[in-house]
Write a structure and sequence with these properties.
With 508 residues, the chain is of the alpha+beta class. It is built from 17 helices and 14 strands.
């Protein structure tokens, strides 16, 4: 099957989302796909329920590519600095050389969905690290058409999605490298975990990187991301996206007091309006698990749940950096992060809604809560389907805050603005408009985006061509990649136009 065939069809993608939602609706805590990895490194967990109770990007951008290749966008520390910024230097595509025994490689290739750890070694920029841990990573969608047991998954064989299995058949799969495999304190450039995303479902190979870049550019906390080449046992494995791990090292780097609690996928107030119980907060912890003290988040949750709509404004202003959260929301909409915290999907009633792909950090000194963007692999997609599409504009309330039909009988959607936290932001619609104007006319203008994608395209063209030469039709051709990048530019223009138009109807 060629690369174009491996990229999910609309038909198959819908099935994947249906299955993921069914599984998530039954979850009460996060895990890591059966992995034995400690909780701080568990990014691949199913969602918690909210209530828990090309040469160029395209021929038209040739000049921009040439210009971008000549002028670096920023200056990064040298390799001797040991600084994490070296890994995420936006001007370079660096190479990661993984060595793993044939026996260990055969073990994980035989059943990637088991996410089994094996011992390996890593060489980077002449430095050797190891032994390290190596495993494949992903959720259900990551395995589709890339494992033998998922190649025939369709409406007639839906169980293939529930239990992905079988040997690896794609040239590359997302991987995780555990630098502190033997010693919990071992680090590489200040990190203990390396995440390499395959981008198998993104023929442009640009969407996820662009999303993370824009969150950071706007002043909203998010991981950094950059492209990377990977060799395994001396042979080219393909182009990947290196995505920064969300853990204690991330929080210490980003926040005034970074020693507080990081939570994955648990909203401060349930969709039924209740504060989150302590056991659910503890289960969502991704730092300080041994201490398991969630007092600060419990306090925030209780205050917000007990507040009237008018009081919620004061609660949110006291606990939240409004400009930071507004920036998050503007970017969330501009990149169509429709599988994120803006999409409240409801199962069996408005009090049983779930939402995906976000973290919260609680700064213990400033007593502030920070929403962190996560898992952007399906942003800026061309798929139009109710399950993966937010059906309310930012600030819009539909059906008097009751859930509404989205064309899928067992799933309904509820406007995010009906949540007390998001609802309180409506009093700051002027800030939303100002941030939207700033981004839409600045770093996310058509000209700026085209130039940025041209810059990154110039960086990854050779690696893309190299993969096609190595794997033939199993990998993207340069022509397929260029076409997908051109399509991505069209999607971005469409999304920007929609968000700017919707903002004209905001109150005030």
């Amino acid at each position: 099957m060629g690369q174009a065939g491996r990229v999910l069809s609309d038909h198959a993608r819908v099935i994947v989302v249906l299955v993921v939602l069914l599984i998530c609706a039954a979850c009460s805590s996060s895990g890591d796909g059966g992995s034995a990895e400690p909780a701080p490194d568990a990014e691949d967990a199913p969602a918690l329920e909210a209530d828990t109770s090309p040469t160029t990007a395209a021929t038209s951008t040739t000049e921009a590519v040439a210009s971008a290749a000549e002028e670096p966008t920023s200056e990064a520390p040298g390799p001797d600095s040991g600084d994490i910024s070296y890994l995420f230097d936006q001007n370079e595509v660096r190479t990661y050389d993984i060595t793993v025994s044939e026996e260990n490689l055969a073990t994980i290739d035989a059943n990637p969905a088991a996410e089994e750890w094996v011992e390996a070694a890593l060489e980077f920029e002449g430095d050797k690290f190891g032994p390290i841990g190596l495993r494949y990573k992903g959720s259900i969608g990551a395995w589709l058409n890339c494992l033998e047991g998922t190649q025939n998954a369709d409406f007639d064989n839906p169980l293939a999605f529930f239990n992905p299995s079988g040997a690896k058949v794609c040239p590359k799969l997302s991987m995780k490298l555990k630098i502190n495999w033997e010693d919990s304190k071992d680090e590489m450039y200040g990190v203990r975990t390396i995440q390499l995303h395959s981008m198998n479902n993104d023929p442009s190979q640009l969407r996820e990187r662009l999303g993370y870049w824009l969150f950071n550019e706007a002043g909203a906390p998010a991981p950094r991301a950059v492209h990377a080449r990977v060799n395994i046992n001396g042979e080219y494995a393909g182009l990947f996206l290196l995505v920064e791990q969300l853990d204690g090292r991330f929080t210490r780097d980003r926040f005034d007091d970074g020693k507080g609690n990081l939570f994955k996928q648990i909203w401060p107030v349930s969709s039924g309006g209740q504060p989150q119980p302590e056991d659910a907060l503890v289960a969502a912890l991704r730092t300080n698990e041994d201490e398991a003290s969630v007092e600060l988040m419990s306090e925030f949750s209780a205050e917000l749940a007990a507040a009237s709509p008018e009081e919620a404004v004061e609660v949110v202003e006291r606990w939240i950096d409004i400009d930071e959260l507004i920036a998050n929301q503007v970017v969330d909409r501009l990149i169509r992060h429709d599988d994120g915290p803006s999409n409240w999907r409801c199962f069996g009633g408005d009090g049983n809604c779930m939402l995906n792909n976000f973290y919260w950090y609680m700064d213990p000194t400033n007593r502030t809560a920070h929403l962190i963007a996560w898992d952007l692999d399906v942003t800026l997609d061309s798929i139009e389907h109710p399950l993966v599409q937010v059906n309310s504009a930012w600030g819009e309330i539909r059906n008097d805050c009751e859930s509404f039909d989205i064309g899928i009988g067992f799933v309904r959607q509820r406007s995010a603005t009906c949540d007390p936290l998001f609802g309180a932001l409506l009093t700051h619609s002027d800030r939303y408009q100002a941030k939207l104007d700033e981004l839409a006319s600045g770093p996310y203008s058509a000209e700026a985006v085209e130039e940025r994608l041209a810059t990154w395209s110039a960086q990854i063209e050779d690696a893309t061509a190299e993969a096609h030469e190595a794997f033939g039709d199993e990998a993207l051709s340069v022509e397929e990649w260029r076409s997908a990048t051109e399509t991505l530019l069209d999607i971005i223009d469409e999304a920007r136009t929609e968000v700017v138009a919707a903002a004209e109807n905001l109150p005030g």
